[in-house]
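TA notes. Do not distribute before section.
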Amino acid sequence: MDDPVYRGAYLEELAAVVAGPFEPARMETRYRELHALIEPYVTGPLGERPGFTLLEDPADFDPALEELVAHAWRRSAAIGEFLGQIENTPDPTEGMQAGEPPIERTW
């Protein structure tokens, strides 16, 4: 992050990803679609057989979806917080010449 070109590109890409393909409402919709698609093959009559599954109890399948959805929302919030802090923090590389070593931080 000490390279001003890379830093700017990274922050732009991070904002684009969280506002686009990994926007949490979009991810939640997709997770729920995929959950419904595979559910009969995980917990239904066509589901996994004991001894051939990593699912300890079929009842664990739905809470796992809720945890995945919550994770998407938490990560989005964390990225938003990070980007908000970055916007309010001076760029430590501002004014540096290309190839100049980064400023040592003492905090």
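Switch to the second chain here.
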Amino acid sequence: MYSPNNIRYYRTLAGLTQYELADKLGIKQPTMSQYERGTRNPSIIDLRTMAKIFKVSVDDLIGTKSTSIATVEALMTESQAKAN
């Protein structure tokens, strides 16, 4: 089982629209929308491709690691504050 919220989160973080990500995956935008709504499961190939695009592991993408998105966001905010 994957987390549709993670796909949306990482896509947004990457600055991609559904259309742009769908194009990179070779799928149509409505399919991408279904992935993000959780009404359709992405193929393993699509999951691996998205993970490469987002520079995360498939585990991160599907949410099988114990690190939550909130934890990732907090770490990113902290890192950005240190950089400034």
